[in-house]
């Protein structure tokens, strides 16, 4: 393989990683609108990066064996989880006396990371069918999504200080809208 072909493949994977990571940025922006400490932001970014490694890896491995029917199912599940998180955040913003049902800590972080990375499972299915380089692909996807998540969370945190009590409702609305967009692409 010549240098131009390798650079072309790297550029293609980077563009795909940026496209997949933009959902992590958007959702990170929404989640950043709730009060998060720097350590939580670090863990959230790392967790989403890890999910963006193993979800496309699982997709690539399965994609080499099965059809891409599961891509649609993964997208619908991811959209449904984001809608659930978004609705929960909007309702929690109006009930300040209660703790949110799902927060980006522990199991809530796993649900959050899973909902953001399910679309990368679909992409992994396609890449597995076409025989893409597995290690390079998942490392690029993981690093790009981790960095974009951190950027989204930090921007969201900055905006949260400006919006005050409305920031959690706005963050929930962003997650809700993104979940609807995943289920009903328009």
UniProtKB/TrEMBL annotation:
One of its GO terms (cellular component) is plasma membrane. It is a multi-pass membrane protein. It is found in: Cell membrane. The keyword Zinc-finger does not apply. One of its GO terms (molecular function) is manganese ion transmembrane transporter activity. Pfam families: Mntp. The keyword Ion transport applies. Keywords: Cell membrane, Ion transport, Manganese, Membrane, Transmembrane, Transmembrane helix, Transport. The chain crosses the membrane at residues 12-34, 41-63, 69-94, 106-129, 135-156, 163-184. Probably functions as a manganese efflux pump. Belongs to the MntP (TC 9.B.29) family. This is Putative manganese efflux pump MntP. It comes from Metabacillus litoralis.
């Amino acid at each position: 393989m010549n240098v131009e072909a390798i650079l072309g493949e790297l550029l293609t994977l980077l563009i795909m990683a940026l496209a997949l990571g933009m959902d992590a940025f958007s959702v990170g922006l929404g989640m950043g609108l709730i009060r998060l400490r720097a350590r939580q932001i670090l863990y959230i970014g790392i967790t989403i990066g890890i999910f963006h490694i193993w979800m496309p890896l699982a997709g690539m491995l399965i994609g080499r064996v099965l059809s891409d029917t599961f891509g649609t199912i993964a997208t619908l599940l991811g959209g449904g989880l984001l809608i659930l998180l978004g609705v929960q955040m909007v309702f929690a913003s109006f009930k300040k006396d209660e703790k949110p049902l799902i927060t980006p800590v522990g199991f809530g972080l796993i649900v959050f990371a899973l909902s953001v990375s399910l679309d990368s499972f679909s992409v992994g299915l396609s890449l597995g069918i076409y025989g893409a380089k597995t290690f390079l692909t998942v490392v690029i996807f993981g690093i790009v999504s981790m960095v974009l998540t951190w950027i989204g969370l930090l921007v969201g945190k900055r905006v949260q200080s400006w919006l005050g009590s409305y920031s959690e409702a706005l963050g929930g609305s962003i997650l809700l809208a993104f979940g609807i967009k995943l289920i009903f692409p328009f």
